Input
Amino acid sequence: MNYKELVNKPQKFAPGHRSCAGCGFPPIVRTVLASTDDPIVAACATGCLEVTSTIYPFTSWGIPFIHNAFENSAATISGVEAAYNALKRKGRIPKNKKIKFVAFGGDGGTYDIGLQSLSGALERGHDFTYILYDNEAYMNTGIQRSSSTPFGASTTTAPAGKVHQGKEEWKKDIMQIVTAHHIPYVAQASVHNPIDLSMKAEKALNTPGPAFLVVLQPCTLGWRYHPSMTIDMAKMAVESNFWPLYEVENGKYKLNYKPSKAIPIVDYLKPQGRFKHLFKPENKHLLDEMQKKVNERWDELVKKCE
Amino acid sequence: MTNSPKTKALTGAQAVAQAMRQINPDVVSVFPITPQTAIMMQFSQFHADGLVETELVRVESEHSAMSCCVGASAAGARAMTATASAGLALMWEILGVASGLRLPIIMPVVNRALSAPINIHGDHSDAMGARDQGWIQIFCENGQEAYENTMLAVKLAEHKDVMLPVMVCQDGFITSHGVQNVNLFEDKVVKKFVGDYEPKKWLLNTDDPVTYGPLQLQDYYFETQKQRADAMLASKKIYLEIGKELSKITGSNYPLFEEYKLKDAEAVIVVMSSTAGNTKVVIDKMRAEGKKVGLLKPKLFRPFPYTEIAKALANKKYVAVLDRSENYGANAPLFGEIKNALFDSVVCGDKDVCVPKLKSYIFGLGGRNIFESDIEDVFDVLLSDNFDNKVGYIGLRGEEK
Output
């Protein structure tokens, strides 16, 4: 789909929701939902997306939607998809009626508390697409560290202080974990590139069986940058090789974008308040470590894509 | 009986699995836990043999078992799972979601002790830990009751004025693994009785989108909870109505609680589930000796029939309530409810109710046996008119009789 086709698709996620100015997930949700013309049923984990879009008696969802709890978006959509199979078999839904199933979850609901539920649903082979909007911390509860939070980032449960310099562990590699389930389609995308995102969402939605898509979603409050810079932040994450755009289709890796010359990681970190402390002279070694890690992970990925 | 049943030797677990086969649910989520597993192993075999059209989802935990049921039920399917003990505890959060979203999920529960120490045997601590999550709870004395109540539960849960999930509880091992004669009714009769589930708002009706599980804040949450509470209270009457309908098939009765030689009894034991059966045997023996003893067996624990029970216990001299679970630092669960029931009636000026002298007993934790002689001892204590209001512990090492 090109931009024109994308923007002319019927709107399935209505404005008027209460996400922050500059929030990255509304364009992710809109793009994903616009990537199929079939009816969609969505499940969503507890988190920013759910609380800002379903404040009773209002809802932004123009499609059937269910929020169950924090850790069970994948198990919930499993039940919906199982119901679809059963009701189709019993003739309560017309045999030729196609419905797509999508589960949304943030990084807390996916990398952490919902990982088991996700793994179970992937292994069972339900026909659904999991969309992880990754803003790299528990933003809904006030910016707490998750296993997706990058090394060095200051959060409210791993803040930078006199002794500790924010998160001391590396970000979990969710793509590897999901890929290890040998599901047909796994991809990483970014909100700044809607054409790539919608191409991946379309593939994921049209893949029989489980598909997984993780989308980087800059968070103005948690990352502490100006709300006008969300798309720029996502772009820099990709241009610095921190967040490569790639997909794993039936086990085959493919790099979707290769910066002609990667920007230094510090260019990506600098505008973000969560990394401010790293720019003190005594923390230079941490920035060096980060650059080294980004390079290592990029090289590993490029090898897999060869 | 209007429909001649087939009598089979079945465990309580198998009896419930037979009910599930006849109900033929749209979606069943499966996860093993002792002693519930016996239900799902049998049902999975029915599935493997093509005897049901159910979509079986072999989930990776009980948390996902209930989450899957929530998704399936909201999608418009008749959904079931079964569990016990730690499994029920793990589901606890989603139990409240199921009832809060008003989803008529049916769940056989095979009552088992909770950890720690770990113990696989029967007691009621699991169901009591979940009693305030907005689920209707029906306790069954034996396999026959578990079989019939599972059918009843489907109609009750899905009734338009109820729309609440139901637990059908039986005692772990004692009932679930004990073989009894169970009368199975014809498949087509059961099928006709339970009918089809016709949801009003369902996710798979994509032409009429619905948002399930929204955020409700200070302005709406309260009203939603009140509606759930009202539905729970309303379900008592509907349980009785559906019970009457089921009676036409089974010839049995489905009261809120069973009375056994209660009318003229001086000393009464209140106890649920399998122990009620043992108590009946003791009552027969003691009645033959001229002792006026009787039983009140609650079947519906949620909603709890306070006024009806208070009336039934009116003017009894002595009542002992036997709980198969502790309630650390508080009245044992069933005892507390009985006491509430009697107190309410007195405060409300019900002149027909004179509060009996009460005694609370705890028994059978972690599957500790209770013997007929223990039950007889309880009646003897009551009839002696010489007992205090301290909690008694039946069969506890070091406890005096």
